[in-house]
User: Fold these one by one.
Assistant:
Number 1:
Amino acid sequence: MLNWVFGSKSKKRRKKPGIGNKPSYEKAREIASSGSVNERQKLAAHEDLEPEILYYFATDDAPEVRREVAENRGTPLQADIILSTDTDEEVRCELAMKIGRLVPELNLKESEQLTEMALEVLEVLANDELPRVRAIIAEELKSASNVPKGIIRHLAEDLEDIVSVPILEYSPLLNEADLLEIVARGMKGRALVAVARRRKVAEPVVDAVVAKKDKNATQAVIENNTSVISERTFDKITEEAAGNKEWHNAMVYRDGLPVRTVMRIATFVSAALTERLIEKNSTQKNLVDKLRKTVRQRIENGELGEDEDNGISPAVDRVEADHKQGKLSEEKIESALGEGDNAYVRYALILLADLPKETVGKMLNTGSSKAITALVWKAGLSMAMAVQVQEKIGRLSGSKVLQPTKDGGYPLTKDDLDWYMESFF
């Protein structure tokens, strides 16, 4: 790794496709001084090129050449310093990707020997006027633990969400005190949500996030089962929850709810979600009896319709009844998903896939899009349904969701799907 710092060519490097063999030193010097842009560009892509030639190319008139130098892992740091303030934004972006990937790879010994030049390049890019450059650095450093904390704090407090969000959600270098200070400075929106999604968010940080009264951030805290929520904060959340229907699912599926919170939730969520509360607490007979009593009172008061009264019967009974009547269709399952009746969907998958309850639960809770997709396939349902199950039960989002092929089919082969199924037995 220190070969990168000093530009040594002694380390064997990978060869970039399509650039041909490296010419002799004499030929390389000739190309550098009088070759065409295309020739210089190809030459600059060789990672085992002599450092002095790469350094020379760092000030080449053609941005295409400088981009190759910026991307080249063999470029000496002296040249990277020059490129860090290049006028071409693509050059700086290429450099940001390279530096951002190289620095986290350093081991402890190399980190101690990391020169001021390397830190200078990193700091210049972290302060680049172009958000895209800073965002690249943030994305590459978000999980790093061997970079200067000052750089991480700077990125975490960036005004652009695309820069701050990855650091706020993932960086192990931000401790409780850092997060409390950053939140106190007026954080809001996606940045606040990012803090709420961190693993093992400490109770004081949770309190600070909830105190902001940001609906999306509070929902993220509830959905984050690793966050530490005190009973007092649960009380504050439930006070607002009745009027925030989008929180209902998250609260019901939250693990470790205090009994007082469970009972409070039962006074405003739908019958389907109340059923889920009953199922989650089935070992606590007294609590289950109180929950059923609460549902009956809500029906008598007109808060729940008679049709919803049927919804509190065990999901397994409803699924089996629908199956016997030939009503256990994909449309029925999709409707249950739309109503937040996840228990119905789980039992439907158990029955249709003909798998043990424990196996289905394990597959749905893995966080693996491919495992969930294989389960839905095994149940004989469409890839469109697999997408919904990934999102609504697997709690996956964005690029983590496995998408269908252009014709709406499964993107995995039958052998792959069979393999994923077999891996759970």
Note: The chain has a mean pLDDT of 86.
Number 2:
Amino acid sequence: MRLEPRFLPALALAVASCATVPSVADREFRAGDYAGAAAAYEEALRTDPRARANPALCLRLGLAYARPDTPAHDLKRAAAVLKDLETRFPKTQEARQAAALIPQIEHEAALEAAASVAAAKIQDLEDALAMLQGEVRTLDAAVKAGAEQAQHLRAMLAEREAQLRRVRDELEQLKRIDLQRAP
């Protein structure tokens, strides 16, 4: 079978694109662009049968998802990829590495979930605290207003008592005057 020269560019492009996707992914992985590497590995697995048969590529994909503090960080996806690697390539070095990593990743995922629940509880408590602080400010204002009103009422009471004493004194004076006039 002889290859037609007109098909050579298309064949070269097909071969180059198959070889390029994993190498681009590897280059991004080594450079620390784990989100780019994960996307490129996923594309390679989707389009390249040789990539699907490559346990090292699957391991690096799982590691890209497992990497914390990156946009690609997804521990559930990392565990799923590594479990799939362990199932599909059970006798490889990569499968042994995946088997060692899976419990750690699952533990980290559980810790992240617990931290997320704790963060939600903390936020709820902070919201409740803010609401209570608002209520305390309202109650403090009411107490201050009540204290001012009580002070005002005490002043009025003292004034009324002073008026009452004056009226009693005048009444007593009038009684004495009345008693002195009485024949």
Note: The helical segments are 8-31, 34-47, 49-52, 55-66, 75-88, 93-181.
Number 3:
Amino acid sequence: MKIKRILVSQPEPTSNGSPYFEFAERNNVKVDFRPFIQVEEVSSKEFRQNRINILEHTAVIFTSRTAIDHFFRICNDLRITVPDSYKYFCISEATAFYLQKYIVYRKRKIFYGDGKFSELIDIIKKHLSEKYLVPLSHIHKPEIPELLDKENVNYTKAILYRTVSSDLSDLKDVNYDILVFYSPSGIKSLFKNFPKFEQNDIKIASFGPTTAEAVKQAGLRLDIQAPNPQAPSMTMALEQFIKQNNKK
């Protein structure tokens, strides 16, 4: 069976420079985008019930751009002015640069890792005198609190948003040759929307080890896994699979 239609379980890229557009044209396949999950904010009223005082902290740890958005949203809702002395610890350089949306970047103390939380922990360990706030979704990687606890970091976990399944009922009669997943939440959403989903000839592609594990735990067949030594990106992994598959 030749691959003709692919569904990527993420929002459609806003930039024309997305590798998916070139990939689709180069391989003569149709790529659709549809987020399988969506983010819901925790209200300021609900946040107050947790009795977390943002101004009692001296630093904040950001693991995503979404966390940044919701941290400053809560601050705005509560009319809190974040002190200039606040320190910012970000999972990656790209996440750190996103702070420019809310603060004067060059005038703040900002630190960032290489995209892995274990790398960021090494930086945080050099600043153990700080009291950290960690904005998260109600579903988050367990390694975050585990590593913070292991290194005796003084921190408060703040749940500022929730990751919930999207309504995918309109996809019921739409057939795709490949489904692409980037998070375990996407797999959860698939079965919440289609409890009787049967994979059959549909190929499943996943990005990252936790997503791959979620695919297997759900009893699905994992056909394409990225990153791998030959394909560091999802589009490269898809392209390699299509070239092999469509030769048959």
Note: The first strand starts at residue 5 and ends at 8.
